[in-house]
């Protein structure tokens, strides 16, 4: 069975990169190589794998990737840190959470 992975990298500038691959080890090596100067992660090396999840279909993986890309940084950090309570709170109402964090 072929597996697909959704992953989050933390780049050297503290930004997050989210991607999908069918070979996580190879993809991480590619992100940290100096082969393609036009990629997002090239100038932000080294890149550290901070989270991943595996899927049995590419459709499921792509759906998860798109979902995560739409999340706020705080929500991504809650996922990475396995802070489930905070993740639930941040999921309830983005507008309300944004408003309360500005108070």
From TrEMBL:
Claim: Nuclease is one of the keywords in the record: yes
Q: Does the keyword Nuclease apply?
A: yes
| UniProt-recorded Gene Ontology molecular function terms | endonuclease activity
Domain GIY-YIG, residue spans? 2-78
Q: Which domain of life is it from?
A: Bacteria
User: What are the alphabetically sorted keywords of the record?
Assistant: Endonuclease, Hydrolase, Nuclease
- Cross-referenced InterPro entries: GIY-YIG_endonuc (IPR000305), GIY-YIG_endonuc_sf (IPR035901), UPF0213_domain (IPR050190)
Per the record, the similarity remark reads: Belongs to the UPF0213 family.
Protein name, as recorded: Putative endonuclease
The taxonomy runs: Bacteria, Pseudomonadati, Bacteroidota, Flavobacteriia, Flavobacteriales
């Amino acid at each position: 069975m072929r597996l697909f992975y959704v992953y989050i990298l933390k780049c050297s500038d503290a930004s997050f990169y989210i991607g999908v691959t069918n070979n996580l080890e190879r993809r991480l090596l590619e992100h940290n190589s100096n082969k393609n100067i036009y990629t997002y992660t090239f100038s932000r090396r080294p890149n550290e794998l901070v989270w991943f999840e595996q899927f049995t279909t590419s459709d499921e993986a792509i759906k998860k990737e798109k979902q995560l890309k739409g999340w706020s940084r705080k929500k991504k950090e809650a996922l990475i840190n396995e802070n489930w309570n905070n993740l639930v709170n941040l999921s309830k109402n983005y507008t309300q959470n944004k408003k309360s964090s500005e108070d």
